[in-house]
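Re: Re: ligand-bound prediction request (bumping)

Still looking for help on this. To restate: I need the protein modeled with magnesium ion bound, output as structure tokens. Inputs repeated here so nobody has to scroll up.
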Amino acid sequence: MDKPNINTNKINWNFDNTYSKLPKSFLSETLPVSVKSPQLIILNHNLSKKLNLNFSDSSNEDLAQTFSGNLLPEGSKSISQAYAGHQFGHFTMLGDGRAVLIGEHISKKDERFDIQFKGSGKTPFSRNGDGRAALGPMLREYILSEAMYNLNIPTTRSLAVVKTGENVIRENILPGAILTRVASSHIRVGTFQYIAAKQNKKELKAIFDYTINRHYPIIKQSKNQALDLLKTLIDKQIDLVINWMRIGFVHGVMNTDNMAISGETIDYGPCAFMDTYDPKTVFSSIDQMGRYAFCNQPIITKWNLARFAECLIPLIDANQNKAIGLATEIINSFEKKYEEKWLEMMRNKLGFIGTTEKDRSLILDLLTLMHQKKMDYTNTFCHLMNLEIQKDIIYKDNDFQIWKKRWRERLSANQNPEEHMKLMRSVNPIVIPRNHKVEEALNKADHDNLESIIKLLKILSTPYTKQKDIIEYQLPLISNKKYQTFCGT
Ligand code: AMP
Ligand code: MG
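Reply:
Sorry for the wait, this slipped through. Here it is.
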């Protein structure tokens, strides 16, 4: 089981391993499986600064060994985590089938980050999988998670991608790769489901205490800690899904194992960004019923939170009926809270300061128009901010003009036009990861050309700021072919 260590002082890893001290059944001690000839593809220097890591004293070969898991840093205790999850509504035992958590890195600001290798080989949870990942999907996660971070949306992040020098067999033979994922933790709704399913209250209490200690220590003072964790998670997840709705993000695989207790966006398998506004937008090839369509995301968030509430029942009250009553009441508060926060978000997108009774109908009428007239979600808001990205005839449309007149009247209630523009500019991205640009960059990377990825990442690093000559990154691809994404690749 032993692996050679490397000199940690070179990189400044500062590992702790609190999760590995939890009951044995929560995890398995698993080392990353060594790979043939690792090659560093990309390294996130911005993130490394935040983590206080130092790569300047390491050669690319050293870094490739480090981020492939061929060498493990001193102080690391590598584990795979057990979890379960409702996948498309069906309960399944899962666990890290192709990932290991090598430790929790503590930054100088005393922030704790899980450092996880994804694609690191078989684990006891691999079932029939090969434990590996392909280069394209790992780079895709890197691009999209960093884009989400820069869009000011809570998310796991990506520190590095290495090629393994080995092939993985999918529909085609693809180059293998490992992504280093950084998360405030990997505790999922599915982690609670796995432990709750064993009906061992002591173990449930152990993950519960661990979670509030790590993420929500304020709850330790609560009268009913379990109820307060539920309330907190509802708020966190509402904020998250509203952020997704704000920018047209379709997660694509909102299974309960892909919902993090930290409130971060996690699992970038089949996600993509909506171009033309259509509430029913689905990209994932396996989501035939549209369970995780754009407009269903809030409903599914509530459904997942109800599964989380079920896990907490034994901790809410010794009287099961009473506990169920209390949890149900909290879960039922979801709609009202969501509706209020959604309205606020849409008001911001339209630059409305304060509230009026007309706001709701103005918002809904715009969305209906955008849907009927097949308007681009991102670029329509850019148009309203006077950024003419698409000289689209649609903006001359009579119905749209009539709506715009009503919108202007609403804005004129406020004296200072700069104020609403400022508000709009803070929430409406000028550029998003357009699906065709992401694909184009990934295709080039498959042929060892990383320039397009670097350029794309640079443009996506300031999505709310005007940038020169980026029009091709702002326009949607006009195509009859529906964009499709794939899971587990
Ligand atoms: P995901 O669709 O990424 O949320 O993964 C669902 C489950 O499948 C998780 O338990 C993963 O660890 C597992 N999984 C996905 N791909 C592989 C693979 N290539 N080998 C083993 N397990 C995998
Ligand atoms: Mg997952």
